[in-house]
Amino acid sequence: MQPTVQQIIDQFEQFAPPRYAEPHDPIGLQIGNRDQIVHKILITLDVRPEVVQEAIANQVDLILAHHPLMFRPAPHLDYRDPQQRMYMDLIQHQISVFAAHTNLDETPGGMNDWLGEKIGLQNLRPFNRRTKDFSEPSIYLGVVGELPTTQSVLAFAQTCKQVFNVSGLRLTTHHPEHPVKRVAIIGGDGGKFYRAALAEEADVLITGDVYYHTAHDMLAEGLSVIDPGHHIEAVIMERLPPLLKEWQQQHDWQFEIQVSQINTDPFQFI
């Protein structure tokens, strides 16, 4: 049978409950009809105009994204504005959009575990535990683990560049030759949590969008940091399809799964 948008949401939110999200994070159904029948799902990191056109061309019913479509309220709906036109195109073509953001980041077995596994860390364990208004000691925003083979900071940065398939990254260190064994990783913008990595005695922290002045603080405290960018969270497009297939078998659902072919990373290194 074909599920509804709401049935897909219900299943996803069992895996990554909304209560795990950070305050004011606009997760969940962004646009759409909860009763709509789903024949085709598109998985993407970001919902950008090019992704919406891809969804329209492929007759997609539901977009599953990591980053919310709307971080801020739309001030107007002017079709000449590409951002606003994107919303209108979604509505016109009856495409629903669902986003799982910090709830997916903080759920056990979610985004940060995926990133730690991708870089090859062993003995993965949570760190940077989050305090919520409910009793869930398992909630965390980051993982820490060990490399199977010790590398220098500089060599490990090169490894990250290859594994995450980025054309460039930023390395913050005073000691590029120092050995790296224990690594902490926080997907997205995790620089503000660098002291939690220090508390774990991590040799290196991997995170994106490191702020200039925070980088100085990291250096002063002796922490090496690798910033491969925010876009490494595109790992969702590798890890979500197997989950959806598992749910298909569990519920006897019939729908097609597509992974976006659009690169939504806004940065280029020249």
What does this 3D model show about the protein?
By secondary structure, the chain is of the alpha/beta class. The model has no long low-confidence stretch (mean pLDDT 95). It has nine helices and eleven strands. Helix content is 32%, strand content 22%. It has a six-stranded mixed sheet with strand order 5-6-8-9-10-7. The protein has a five-stranded mixed sheet with strand order 1-4-3-2-11. The chain folds into two domains: 5-104 and 234-258, NIF3 (NGG1p interacting factor 3)-like (Udp-n-acetylmuramoylalanyl-d-glutamate--2,6- Diaminopimelate Ligase, Chain: A, domain 1); 108-227, Udp-n-acetylmuramoylalanyl-d-glutamate--2,6- Diaminopimelate Ligase, Chain: A, domain 1 (3-Layer(aba) Sandwich). The N and C termini lie far apart (49 Å). It is globular and about 55 Å long. The chain has helices spanning 5-15, 49-57, 82-92, 102-106, 111-118, 153-163, 194-199, 212-220, 236-251, and strands at residues 28-31, 40-44, 62-65, 96-99, 122-126, 143-152, 170-172, 179-189, 204-208, 224-227, 256-259. β2 (40-44), α2 (49-57) and β3 (62-65) form a beta-alpha-beta unit.
